[in-house]
Amino acid sequence: MRALTKDKLKVNIYENRPLLGAGAADAISKKINELLETKEYVNIVFAAAPSQNEFLAELQKKDIDWSRINAFHMDEYVGLNQEASQLFGNYLRERLFDKVSFREVFYLNGNAPDMEEECKRYAALLTRNRTDIVFLGIGENTHLAFNDPHVAYFDDPEMVKVVDLDEKNRMQQVDPGDKTCFSDIKEVPTHAITLTVPALFKADYAFAIAPGPKKANAIYHTLYSEVQEKYPSTVLRTHNNAVLYIDENSASELAES
C-alpha cells in the first residue's frame, strides 16, 4: 500500500481490489470498535455498488458488536420493483444487512406513495440518529450517492431529496454480467431518492471506496480539480476525517498529473 494526501483527504492506494477490501475493512473495523468504546451505539450510512463488494465481504468477518450499530443507506431508485436485485436496499441485504445482527436497519423506500413524505421521514431518522460514519462510492461522473453534478449542491438545504439521474450515471448502472446492475439503459430508472451532500458530510468520519479502471478519471478529478459542484467528489478534500481507498487501476491517471 502507498499513501498520499490532498488537502485534508488521505488516500490509500492498494495493488488490487482484494487487498483494498481487506485493508479498508481492517482499518475501518478498528475505527468502529474505537467509537463503540465511548458510544452506546454507532450510526453508519452504507453505499451500495459493485465497488463495495470486496470491502463488505471483509467487513462482515470482523469482530464487531453489530447489535450496537444502526444501519442506513444513502440512495435508492424510484419506482423499481421491490424484488429487483438492482435495488440498493436488496443489494445491502444480500451483502451485509442479512449477514450480521444490526441494532436496527433503516431502509429508504423508493416505492413510497408520497416521495416528499418519504424524504422527510428519512431526514427525521438521520436527525435523531446522528451519523458517525459514512461509506461512500464515487461515480464515474464523480457523483456521491446519487448527487450527480447537475443536482449536487454543497450547501443543499435538504437532507434527503428526489433527483433525476444524468445519462452517464445511468450508463454506469448497465452491466449485463452483474445481476445487481441492468442489462440495458432503458431499464435504468430515471429518478432516485438520495441523501444530499450536506447530509452525507454530517458524518464524523467519511470513507470512500472506489476501485477499478472505470473510476480512474473520476479519481483524477477528485484529487486535482478545483473543489466544485461540477465534480461532487472533490468535496471529500474538505472533510476533516476522510480517507479514500483506491487500487492501482483507479489510480492509473494520477501518474499523469
Instruction: List the strand order in the largest sheet.
Output: 1-2-11-10-7-3-4-6
The arrangement of helices and strands along the chain is EEHEHEEHEHEEHEHEHE
Q: Tell me the name of the CATH class.
A: Alpha Beta
For the termini, the CA-CA separation is 20 Å
What do these coordinates show?
It contains seven helices and eleven strands. The protein is α/β, with parallel strands linked by helices and 257 residues long. Strand 10 (205-209), helix 7 and strand 11 (242-247) form a beta-alpha-beta unit. Helix 1 crosses helix 2 (53-59). The longest helix has 20 residues, at 17-36. It starts with a strand and ends in a 10-residue tail after the last strand. The model has no long low-confidence stretch (mean pLDDT 95).
Helices, strands, pairings?
Elements: E1 2-6, E2 9-14, H1 17-36, E3 42-46, H2 53-59, E4 69-73, E5 75-77, H3 88-97, E6 104-106, H4 115-128, E7 133-136, E8 160-164, H5 167-172, E9 191-195, H6 197-200, E10 205-209, H7 216-224, E11 242-247
Parallel strand pairs: 2-11, 3-4, 3-7, 4-6, 7-10, 10-11
Antiparallel strand pairs: 1-2, 5-9, 8-9
Helix pairs in contact: 1-2
Task: Give a summary of the structure in a few sentences.
The chain has helices spanning 17-36, 53-59, 88-97, 115-128, 167-172, 197-200, 216-224, and strands at residues 2-6, 9-14, 42-46, 69-73, 75-77, 104-106, 133-136, 160-164, 191-195, 205-209, 242-247. The protein is α/β, with parallel strands linked by helices and 257 residues long. The protein has a single domain (2-247), classed as Rossmann fold (3-Layer(aba) Sandwich).
